[in-house]
Write a structure and sequence with these properties.
Distance between the termini: 21 Å
Largest sheet: none
Number of helices: 8
Order of helices and strands: HHHHHHHH
Radius of gyration: 18 Å
Strand content: under 5%
Structural class: mainly alpha
Length: 187
């Protein structure tokens, strides 16, 4: 995959992080604290994955994402993130897990507000790091991004339903074709 693919992936993930953050705030206002904790964590997780995409790094698990974030953006980073930020995200994952899976976990409003505040901070910092400034300012229009993602999704679903090497090759070509088409529309 080329650099352009990862830039677009990061932009899509940043938009999703903003949406998840808004969802967490809506859920808080409805006093749905468990669900708000879930959405706050996933806002952070999408922000981390957007950052990793700017470094052309993919991960398959939450834990893998957190480890790569820690290594690339904290230990080797430019100072945009700190060890405390890593700890906030790790704590958010723990709270999300117990909120989702522990029937006896008692969730309080204050804890959820803290989760959402941490998610705001991580998401906003992710949007303003040096790796993402170009993404934010590059600005494909939302309809172009949706069109590209929808096209890739349809082709991917076709490849799942009728698996073959030819279909996977067509998927790769279609994604690159969509990106090229959208790049030429943007310029």
């Amino acid at each position: 995959m080329d650099r352009e693919y990862y830039i677009e992936l990061a932009k899509i993930r940043l938009e999703r992080a903003k949406e998840l953050l808004e969802d967490s705030q809506d859920l808080l206002s409805k006093e749905s604290y468990r669900s708000a904790n879930n959405r706050a964590f996933y806002a952070m997780e999408k922000s981390i994955k957007a950052l990793l995409a700017t470094k052309e790094t993919e991960v398959a698990t939450h834990n893998g994402g957190l480890k790569q974030f820690n290594y690339i953006f904290i230990h080797k980073g430019d100072g945009s993130f700190t060890v405390e930020d890593y700890q906030k995200i790790a704590k958010a994952e723990q709270i999300r897990n117990v909120s989702d899976y522990d029937d006896f976990y008692i969730v309080c409003r204050e804890e959820t507000i803290q989760q959402i505040d941490n998610a705001k901070y991580i998401t906003q910092t992710s949007h303003t790091t040096s790796g993402n400034k170009a993404l934010i300012n590059a600005g494909w229009d939302t309809n172009q991004l949706i069109s590209c993602v929808f096209t890739a999704f349809v082709i991917l679903m076709a490849s799942v339903l009728t698996p073959s090497i030819k279909m996977l090759t067509r998927l790769d070509r279609a994604v690159h074709s969509s990106m090229s088409c959208m790049s030429s529309q943007h310029t």
